């Protein structure tokens, strides 16, 4: 029931033949391929499986409190870079402690609405809440807790130049403050 | 109290001596090692620390609602590939929004039972629950929430060809639907 | 509103000019740069963007139950290694099932206090709790649940030799046991 294993290796003189797909093992010894490297690289330099890193900060404008689908925004920002990776990982890091990143349903906005309902219910807010940290308002401490519940970091596989998510998955930015500011996400791409 | 630092570096002509262990620093300048590369590569090609990527989709058959230990299943699927990495990271990505991946206790099945008890208690379900998203049944919206609570992605260090988890840690697949389907996990290995 | 994209590529003969910053694209074809490689490497060997991996286990002494800021401890342990990476990812893996790692506020200790208050409130403990797994005491099963709520793994971007967290972010070790032991964190650095 498993897909074929894709294996990539970047030895000093490793090269993939132009027709190699991610589902074909491609480990060449350094000595055997030394003579073919220059040719492969010059004729198909864009397909050469070099190890690449890319890093960028994406800014999401201030959102209202709640859960927001940001997949299309993210893909618009990094899609061109993603297309250069046959296999890799995309890492997303939200640089804030009162919002969160998560992966969830990408179709019915009721799911995002209900998730906000849950978060507001499970973390007490208001005069009866037991928090000591209240200087920035009643939504401040609950926002910190929700940030750790869902987390501020995501890693998504890259396959053939795209984020390899499931059919119904999307990237959510969950804003936990009543009066939010723009949110910064450091995106790091790594792969071949 | 700290273990020695293991340092790996893949410069274009970097090579590790055959005896190098993961706990020995091994950064060579490109010029110094240029003459030794071919020899090292030809004599110990399997130990040569090339950067490798591997990616595979593992399918876990439908499970009943609850928490399931899947470490042995995962290791059976990727163990042979893992063995080729001295140092790296293994990334697991569940392509669904109504199940989750987490790391927890690997010995007493009561821990998995109690965790399911907690999840069913903390996320309301049934006629009194406040959800708008109910078309797929009473367990649908709670499943989405639990998926974000535990998350759908894990990254585990690879050390000397094995997942470097603690003695009592295991990989859990938590199924949040009453009537589940098979679940797909994209596994990405990266390292040297 | 986005920062310039930083792009790094390690082809067999790729080289960055000594003045290249992480915000400048630097993809060279293998054939064009073949003649400049040796020179760049010999004159600026420390700046050569080779792919590097480093792995180390950091031990945090036993902490009392609650949330603890460990950023400075972590940076003290890995700072020297971090400084060698222009762009990359730092991965932290806690090898335990009754504690957790999370990122949250780094300034007001009340935030850590209130987070512990929340965790103790949301996960029942004591004679009325519904747990079957109680052999190691009333705090044992709640500790396992909290470990999966916050998670045992973190990935943080590295930019210009430093952890690229937001101004108010810090790394927390959350200890969920009443009588804790030292906690082991496997740190894996990868980048260029």
TrEMBL record, chains A, B, C:
It comes from the Eukaryota. This is Secondary thiamine-phosphate synthase enzyme.
């Amino acid at each position: 029931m498993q897909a074929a294993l894709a294996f990539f290796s970047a030895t000093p003189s490793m090269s993939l033949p132009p027709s190699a797909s991610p589902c074909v093992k491609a480990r060449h010894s350094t000595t055997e391929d030394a003579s073919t490297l220059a040719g492969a690289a010059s004729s198909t330099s864009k397909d050469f499986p070099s190890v690449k890193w890319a890093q960028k900060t994406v800014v999401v404008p201030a959102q209202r409190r709640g859960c927001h689908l940001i997949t299309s925004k993210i893909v618009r920002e990094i899609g061109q870079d993603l297309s250069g990776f046959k296999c890799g990982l995309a890492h997303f890091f939200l640089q804030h402690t009162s919002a969160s990143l998560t992966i969830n349903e990408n179709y019915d906005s009721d799911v995002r609405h209900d998730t906000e309902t849950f978060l507001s219910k499970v973390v007490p807010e208001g005069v009866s809440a037991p928090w000591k940290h209240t200087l920035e308002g009643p939504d401040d401490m609950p926002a910190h807790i929700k940030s750790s519940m869902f987390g501020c970091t995501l890693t998504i596989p890259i396959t053939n130049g795209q984020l390899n998510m499931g059919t119904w998955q999307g990237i959510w930015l969950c804003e936990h403050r009543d009066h939010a500011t723009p949110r910064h996400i450091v995106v790091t791409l790594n792969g071949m």
